[in-house]
């Protein structure tokens, strides 16, 4: 089965953003017609990969550790790989057998669809902790030793995306069962969940598979989710109904949406037109469409839309990528102008930007590359 069938069948999603300055709103918001902000992205400098590692098993997601020293990627065969981010040397490859697979022969493990490092601060009990979604489990793994720290089960679901709040106190998951779940990370206790519109008594929500979710930086109560239903929901954990519903985002990957500290949502949609968009979270309005492909280039359908976080050197920089006849990763400045283009051999499925340098790792279908974005 092609990795592009059903707009990447194995994809599931998550992300983060900043605090609302007014009470939550609850209205259905439609995309606005607006001018495209940037012009010809093909004039941006060509970026080169400083290193590339190939994985014929197939990749789905990538992440950088809080100190940017370790890169991690999740594989379609259910394993996780860590690498030295400077040189691309493989450090470890972790096999993650499930508890209910013990004693079974020839087990086909679910794919690791999404991976995130837990944010760290002076109060973080354990450093270098990764969380990943695989099948119906959220798995916590130590990024250095590979030790299995804990698991969290979601029976009947297939976790496709996850995200941590910026302080690491909460984690959110989304997936095939259309439910957005918010957990206390320390106790693993479910704080709240938002079910689909067809679940009796559960309020409004997604009515198709959910691939991506993101917290608002600096606010552990506000998160955004998007998926196959062409809807992007803004949630406030303090209320039962959506804070906002935005139509027009077709998310098909775990990195399809992100939010910056100023309340700008970045979305990537797997379609020919209007693939990369910026939204104002507070106003619930489309701010601009960014041009992902030039006139003479083939269209790129976006799986990825990421934004650099403060206080990093790539703060506010948008990184996007996807599939097409000419797949690529492209980076955009705060004013919407293209800063650089990394041509790839296959679809770009995930991007993670360094917290303290101008480096970014780009995950393709069968390769992981590091590039430097000139700011």
Structural write-up:
0% of the residues lie in helices and 43% in strands. By secondary structure, it is mostly beta strands. The termini are far apart. The chain has one domain: Methylamine Dehydrogenase, Chain H. A 6-stranded mixed beta sheet has the order 1-16-17-18-19-2, with no helix packed on it. A hairpin with a 4-residue loop joins strand 22 and strand 23.
Count every helix, treating DSSP H or I runs of 4 or more residues as helices. 0
* SSE sequence, one letter per element: EEEEEEEEEEEEEEEEEEEEEEEEEEEEEE
Total number of strands: 30
Helix amount, in percent?
A: under 10%
Portion in beta strands: 35-45%
CATH topology: Methylamine Dehydrogenase, Chain H
The CATH homologous superfamily is called YVTN repeat-like/Quinoprotein amine dehydrogenase
- Which CATH top level class fits? Mainly Beta
Q: Give the second-level CATH assignment, the architecture.
A: 7 Propeller
Report mean pLDDT, rounded to a whole number: 86
What structural class do the secondary elements suggest?
mainly beta
Number of domains as seen in the coordinates: 1
Low-pLDDT sequence parts: 1-34, 101-106
**Ends distance:** 39 Å
Shape: globular
């Amino acid at each position: 089965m092609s990795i592009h069938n059903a707009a990447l069948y194995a994809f599931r999603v998550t992300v983060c953003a900043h605090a609302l300055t007014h009470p939550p709103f609850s209205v259905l918001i439609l995309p606005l017609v607006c001018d495209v902000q940037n012009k010809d992205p093909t004039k941006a400098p060509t970026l080169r990969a400083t290193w590339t590692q190939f994985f014929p098993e197939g990749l789905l997601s990538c992440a950088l550790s809080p100190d940017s020293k370790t890169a991690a990627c999740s594989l379609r065969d259910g394993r996780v790989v860590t690498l030295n981010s400077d040189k691309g040397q493989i450090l470890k490859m972790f096999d993650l057998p499930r508890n209910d697979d013990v004693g079974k022969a020839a087990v086909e493990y679910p794919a690791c669809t999404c991976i995130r490092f837990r944010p760290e601060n002076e109060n973080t009990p354990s450093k270098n902790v990764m969380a990943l979604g695989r099948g119906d489990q959220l798995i916590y793994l130590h990024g250095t030793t590979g030790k299995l720290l804990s698991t969290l089960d979601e029976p009947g679901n297939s976790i496709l995306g996850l995200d941590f709040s910026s302080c690491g106190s909460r984690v959110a998951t989304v997936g095939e069962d259309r439910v957005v779940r918010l957990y206390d990370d320390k106790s693993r206790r479910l704080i709240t969940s938002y079910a689909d519109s067809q679940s009796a008594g559960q309020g409004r929500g997604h009515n198709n598979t959910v691939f991506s979710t993101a917290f608002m930086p600096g606010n552990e109560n506000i998160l955004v989710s998007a998926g196959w239903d062409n809807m992007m929901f803004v949630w406030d954990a303090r209320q039962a109904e959506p804070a906002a519903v935005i139509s027009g985002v077709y998310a098909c990957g775990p990195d399809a949406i992100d939010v910056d500290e100023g309340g700008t949502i970045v979305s990537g949609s797997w379609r020919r037109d209007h693939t990369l968009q910026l939204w104002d979270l507070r106003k619930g309005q489309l701010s601009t469409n960014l041009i992902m492909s030039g006139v003479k280039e083939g269209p790129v359908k976006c799986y990825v839309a990421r934004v650099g976080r403060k206080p990093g050197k790539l703060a506010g920089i948008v990184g996007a990528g996807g599939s097409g006849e000419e797949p690529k990763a492209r980076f955009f400045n705060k004013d919407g102008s293209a800063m650089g283009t990394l041509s790839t051999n296959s679809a770009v499925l995930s991007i993670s930007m360094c917290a303290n340098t101008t480096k970014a790792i780009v995950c393709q279908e069968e390769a992981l590359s590091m590039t430097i974005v000139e700011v």
